[in-house]
Amino acid sequence: MGVAERRYTVRDLAKMKGACRQIVMVTAYDAIMARLADEAGVHILLVGDSMGNTVLGYENTIPVTMEESLALTAAVRRGARHAMVIGDMPFMSYQVSLEEAVANAGRYLKEVGADGVKLEGGRVMHGVISRLVDVGIPVMGHIGLLPQSVLKDGGYRMHGKTQEEADAILDDALAVQEAGAFAVVLEGVPETLAEEITGRLTIPTIGIGAGPRCDGQVQVITDILGLGGDFVPKHAKIYAQLGEAALNGLKQYVQEVTKGNFTPGRPEN
Ligand code: KIV
Fold it and tell me: Is the domain covering 3-238 a CATH 1.20.1300.10 domain?
């Protein structure tokens, strides 16, 4: 399938795994980036809670609220024609009780047109995932490095380097699949472990910092487009320098206005 004439669905993703075709996922936080990524042929737009540290100016993902996440998911939905749109459930929107998890997850589908939700956690989230799936909400799991546990873990680090941790992550992957998730993000785990999990699961794995042998890759859009400032995570690859281009354009605008030279019109080539 090239650029689909309709929106991608969970069944398309399952078929892609079966056909060994790579799934492309990227985060998006507004309609502009959603439109561009959609036009480029991205299969899944994740409205990641990474919005906290990428576009909302927080230190990490912990403060992100349901209202912030829903507003940005609505914008991404409006910009996307073919890509699936996945809302990333914020910290404490699904951990307190099953009832709250169902009510909050349901808002993504009912209020802002998302195609599913993502949430962090393996075995411990089995009950939540299976309840959401039971009521008709497609769920993407997320295991390995869990950014919402950054305070508990004392920072970001690779997970699964010891045999004990690797075994636990494999158990998490199997639990997420057993609970009914349609795919799972593997973040910050060794390549060999990601490859083993990908081989063991029937649902697609989507890696970030997990090597090339997953069923797909996800990247944070501000990282790959050079909008992340000086810090570039090791797992990221920069495909464009939009930050630099924007700064140069804005500097020129400031100069022209302050000198009284501003006139509307297109730049000469
Ligand atoms: O919020 C996010 O951007 C994510 C990806 C890193 C998978 O969860």
Answer: no
